[in-house]
C-alpha cells in the first residue's frame, strides 16, 4: 500500500478490525519510510448487478430504491429501520451470491415480498398491492386469502 504522504510502497499493519457494519476490514498502517500513519479499508469486490426492467431497459442495482420501497410499505408499522436494512442486505447478498450479472426486476420484487411476509404482513400486502398492481378489490382479496391460507 502506497503511503499517502511520501508514496513509499511499503507499510506495516498496526491494527486490524472489522468495520461497524462488518462489510469491510479497517486497517491502521504505518509507512516504513516516513512513519506517517494512515487507514485503509479492505472490502470484497462485488460483481455489478444490472436490473432488467419490464420494458427491457437496464439500470444498475440501487439498494436505496429497494429500501425506499420497503420504507413506504412499512410506513406507520412497527418495523425498525434495522429490520428494513436487514431485508435489503439479505436481498443484495442473495443477488451477489447468485453470480448473475443481470436480474429481472420481477425477481427483486418477489424477493422483497418473500421477506416482508415474515417481517410484517400489512407491509407485505401494501408492497404486493403496488408491485402486483391490483386492479380491483377481488385481486386484493385473492392476495389476502392466499396469505391466510399460507398462515394455516
The ordered H/E elements are: EEEEEHHEHHH
Rg to the nearest angstrom?
22 Å
- List low-pLDDT spans: none
The best one-word shape is elongated
| Number of H- or I-type helical stretches | 5
Give the N-terminus to C-terminus distance in angstroms.
Answer: 58 Å
Report the average pLDDT across residues: 89
Strand content: 15-25%
Describe this structure in words.
By secondary structure, the protein is α+β, with helices and mostly antiparallel strands. It contains five helices and six strands. It has helices at residues 63-73, 81-98, 105-119, 121-131, 137-151; strands at residues 11-18, 24-31, 37-43, 50-52, 58-60, 102-104. A three-stranded antiparallel β-sheet has the order 1-2-3, with no helix packed on it. A hairpin with a 5-residue loop joins β1 (11-18) and β2 (24-31). α1 (63-73) crosses α2. The radius of gyration is 22 Å and the shape is elongated. The N and C termini lie far apart (58 Å). The relative contact order is 0.11. The model has no long low-confidence stretch (mean pLDDT 89).
Question: What secondary-structure arrangement, pairings included, does this model have?
Answer:
Elements: E1 11-18, E2 24-31, E3 37-43, E4 50-52, E5 58-60, H1 63-73, H2 81-98, E6 102-104, H3 105-119, H4 121-131, H5 137-151
Parallel strand pairs: 4-6
Antiparallel strand pairs: 1-2, 2-3, 4-5
Helix pairs in contact: 1-2, 1-4, 2-3, 3-4, 4-5
Task: Describe what is shown at a glance.
The protein is of the alpha+beta class.
Amino acid at each position: 500500500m502506497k503511503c499517502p504522504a511520501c508514496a513509499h510502497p511499503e507499510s506495516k499493519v498496526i491494527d486490524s478490525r472489522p468495520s461497524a457494519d462488518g462489510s469491510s476490514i479497517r486497517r491502521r498502517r504505518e509507512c516504513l519510510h516516513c512513519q506517517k500513519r494512515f487507514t485503509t479499508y479492505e472490502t470484497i469486490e462485488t460483481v455489478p448487478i444490472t436490473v432488467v426492467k419490464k420494458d427491457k431497459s437496464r439500470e444498475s442495482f440501487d439498494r436505496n430504491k429497494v429500501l425506499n420501497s420497503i420504507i413506504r410499505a412499512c410506513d406507520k408499522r412497527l418495523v425498525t429501520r434495522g429490520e428494513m436494512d436487514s431485508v435489503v442486505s439479505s436481498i443484495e447478498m442473495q443477488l451477489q451470491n447468485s453470480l448473475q450479472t443481470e436480474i429481472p426486476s420481477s425477481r427483486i420484487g418477489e424477493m422483497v415480498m418473500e421477506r416482508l411476509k415474515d417481517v410484517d404482513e400489512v407491509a407485505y400486502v401494501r408492497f404486493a398491492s403496488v408491485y402486483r398492481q391490483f386492479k380491483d378489490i377481488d385481486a386484493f382479496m385473492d392476495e389476502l386469502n392466499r396469505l391466510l391460507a399460507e398462515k394455516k
